[in-house]
Amino acid sequence: MSPDGSVNIGPMSSAWALGRTIVLGWEATSQTLANLARDGQCVINYPHADQWAKVEAIATLTGRNPPAAHKADRFTYTNDKWTPGGFTPLPSAGVRPPRIAECAIHCEAEVRGIHEPSGPDRDGFRIVETYVRTVHARRDLVDPAIGHIDTDAWSPSLYVFRDYFGTGPRLGRTRRR
């Protein structure tokens, strides 16, 4: 949530999960990072692979007014990314930001920490540690036998080296499943 009460949908390129912890990478001058630091809540929406163009439609929009100096020639300020992305807000159960209705999986989370990395890139980004409170998943994506996402039914949009991909065929299953 931005200071003016609008929702800042922030497409991201870096995330990983372990248990209920999801770690997000955000550019240090982004409005999304400032919002996470101030508000402490977020929804992590997972688009399906065929929704990559919706994500790309908002990729050069920023909630920061004016845009950061190093982005000013490529980014445009807006406090409404819903319309250009073709997204619909859906109320969340336990956090202020709404979910994106078009996404089949949502994680409502709270920020547990924002970390400055070590090394030469530390001024360029921050590591945001979140804790997932609630997971929403479309019923057709949940394997009822195990109560987890059916990986045969879901093909998430993946952002790899600045290109969009879906998933390929399953190569195998872990014994821990």
Can you offer a commentary on this structure?
The chain has 177 residues and is mostly beta strands. The chain has one domain (14-165): Electron Transport, Fmn-binding Protein, Chain A (Pnp Oxidase, Chain A, Roll). It has 3 helices and 13 strands. The protein has helices spanning 31-39, 52-57, 82-85; strands at residues 14-18, 21-27, 41-46, 61-62, 76-77, 89-90, 99-100, 105-115, 125-137, 142-143, 148-149, 158-160, 163-165. The strands form 5 sheets. Strands 1-2-9-8-3 form a 5-stranded antiparallel β-sheet, covered by helices on one side. Strands 4-5 form a two-stranded parallel sheet. Strand 6 (89-90) and strand 7 (99-100) form a beta hairpin. The radius of gyration is 17 Å and the shape is globular. The N and C termini lie far apart (36 Å). Its cofactor is FMN. Keywords: Flavoprotein.
What would the keywords be for this entry?
3 helices; 177 residues; Pnp Oxidase, Chain A; two-stranded parallel ribbon; 13 strands; 34% strand
Quick summary of this structure?
This protein has 177 residues and is mainly β. Helix content is 11%, strand content 34%.
